[in-house]
Amino acid sequence: TLTLILTNPAQAVTEASLGYVTMNQTRKLVLLLETDPSVSLVQMLGVWVQLPYSQHSNSSNDSNNTNCDMDVQHPFVWAACVRYLCSDAVKRRVYVDSHTFLLVL
Q1: What is the span of the domain harbouring residue 77?
Q2: What is the DSSP code (8-state) at residue 88?
C-alpha cells in the first residue's frame, strides 16, 4: 500500500503514516514502513512522514514555504521524529553530524 500511495498522489490520504528512510546501493532513498523486518538490518538515515491531505492547503503548488512550515510543526511529525530516535527496532543509524537525521515530508 505504501507504493500505491507514493505513486498515486491523486489518491486521498486519510490517515497519517510514517516509516524509516534508508539508501540502496545506487544511493537512492528507500522508504520503509515502520513494521518492515529489514528496519533492524540496514542503516537508517531518517524518518518519512505523510500527513492526511486535509492537513495541507488547497494549493499544492504554493510558491512559499507555508505548507512545509506547518507540516514540520505538526505534532505527528514531532512524534515520528522522537519515535525514530528512540526506536529499539532501528539498530543502525547514520548521522551526518551528532544526532542529525533526514526528515522526508
Answers
A1: 2-104
A2: S
